Amino acid sequence: MKLIDSIVGQAAGIAAIRRDIHAHPELCFEEVRTADLVAAKLTEWGIPIHRGMGTTGVVGIVKNGSSSRAVGLRADIDALPMQEFNTFPHASRHQGKMHACGHDGHTAMLLAAAQHLAKNRHFDGTVYLIFQPAEEGGGGAREMIRDGLFEQFPMEAVFGMHNWPGLPVGCFAVSEGPVMASSNEFKITIRGKGSHAALPHMGTDPVPIACQMVQAFQTIISRNKKPVDAGVISVTMVHAGEATNVVPDSCELQGTVRTFTLEVLDLIEQRMQAIAENICAAFDAQCEFEFVRNYPPTVNHPAETAFAREVMAGIVGADNVRLQEPTMGAEDFAYMLQARPGAYCFIGNGDGAHREIGHGAGPCTIHNPSYDFNDELIPLGASYWVRLAEAWLARPAR
Ligand SMILES: [Zn+2]
Ligand SMILES: [Zn+2]
């Protein structure tokens, strides 16, 4: 493995920062302490910063030479609203908040790269270090773009990285095309007419209507979209009624839809609305249909994916750079890839064996209450960031 020596030398100090961030998790758009810490470190290392983009975002600007070329590296910095089960010293000190997705590690890996890039400017151009808030549902990437990220800091390409449990330490994974899904939510209210449960003919019962609807939605997946296209409809909430002897007035269905393309998403949304409205009409009920599109699909650009793969191979060897199987999870880096070419990759977090005394039961996955980022990755991820930036700025502009 070809790690950068100076990064390896500083890794213990960066791991201490990572554990400090882990102990003080902050939720979407509330990452004030984390942003202060990032800003203080970048400033200490002589890196000019811009603050406040997307509320709590921090951008570090590392320049060298005279070239106007630039590349962006992005880390998310937010935590999740869940209770940590670990009892080790760096466990969360905030009730109901936890770095269970390893964004503390993402922040640390980019800080380690920043520290090295500031001291060793072996490039001609600008590296933008993007510390982004609110990945977990808040759309911090979209907010930073709205606040002018790419206008204020013009960059040719942007790259992102997520730690991945189950993938061995020393492995990367990246694939071109869609790697994460679009995430969308729906809420359907079926308005019938309440009655005595013994006299159902006096009302319009929304419950059997809801049951038909839940079943019919799955025919969109099995009969309407092409079998080779990926798509998920999950009805996750069904709410109606409060008494065994009352036919409720209304029934509410909620859930999520995931797809890898906007075409499949359009199809699913249209079909869901048609099914919902027409089933309600058939049973003489009223229908309220709401469909909210959250994150778009995360789609890697082919040339930038191949480029990232080459950089990874230079560090861990081609055999340790795998293809990433797409997942139906979602990621707001999608917005950045809609605006600029780039690639979102995965760095192996191992099988959980790194976890010390005080961890809950393992091995575990991200969003698990006993999850912890593997500090062993800090020099590896940071070496990737540095080599990626250097190689990008060294190659001819396209
Ligand atoms: Zn997450
Ligand atoms: Zn995450």
TrEMBL record:
Domain of life: Bacteria
InterPro entries: Amidohydrolase (IPR017439), Bact_exopeptidase_dim_dom (IPR036264), Peptidase_M20 (IPR002933), Peptidase_M20_dimer (IPR011650)
Pfam family, one: M20_dimer
Domain Peptidase M20 dimerisation as annotated: residue spans: 185-280
Keyword annotations: Hydrolase
Gene Ontology MF term list: hydrolase activity
NCBIfam families given in the database record: amidohydrolases
Protein name per its UniProtKB record: Hydrolase
Organism, scientific name: Pseudorhodoferax aquiterrae
